[in-house]
Amino acid sequence: MNKPQILIVEDDAAVSNLIATTLELQNYQFRKAPNGAAAVMEALSYRPDVMLLDLGLPDADGVEIIRKIRSWSNMPIIVVSARSEDTDKVEALDAGADDYLTKPFSVDELLARLRVALRRVRCDSRKVTEESSVYANGELKIDYAAGCVFVGEKEVHLTPIEYKLLCLLAKNTGKVLTHNFIIREIWGSGYSASDTSSLWVFMATLRKKIEAEPAHPKYIKTHIGVGYRMMRQG
Ligand code: CA
User: Fold this and answer.
1) C-alpha 69, offset from chain centre
2) Which stretches make up the Response regulatory domain (predicted)?
3) What is the 166 CA–ligand 1 centroid distance (Å)?
4) Which residues of 13-97 form beta strands (DSSP E)?
5) What is the pTM of this model?
6) CA of 81 to the centre of ligand 1 (A)
């Protein structure tokens, strides 16, 4: 892979420069867009591998930008938002963002999220030729064809809902999935965020079956008030 190309969408010059300096040190290429109009234009012409998107832009709603880009591109979008924009963050993930960072963030955190996003780019481009019917992540294994789940050598018996839930998270490994998104995918569009309590119950029983320490899960991480994420192991 050539040098990864990152598009920094940020109207705060100080934050934008900090990100740019960090990327430069990592040997990443980047371009900056200070507003929504420039972001959409650069997304089309520069074709970045990953977009870092500030939600609070002077001329546009960050969520609208995500929707626009999602209509023609699958590029990973990492939302960068201030804590006061928490509800927007959930909306952004529902609109198709891959991940989020809350300001102020550390440079290490930024780079870790970028690596996850870039790994997804590479996986996506391989998908066509290597579509496999077995998912393996650490000790966890899903045989999609047989509908079986294993932890190490041991087969785990899941209920249909637990199985659907696990497959959904596994297929989106590294991505934060919102409560809303999960509920819609598992139970259908008639359900809403008010049903998070049943999701919580199924998540608890699923964790008991696949996690060595359900109280300190290593596979399925909770993002409080947002949703869940399957973590890539090792
Ligand atoms: Ca801003």
Assistant:
1) 16
2) 5-118
3) 35
4) 29-33, 50-54, 77-82
5) 0.73
6) 8
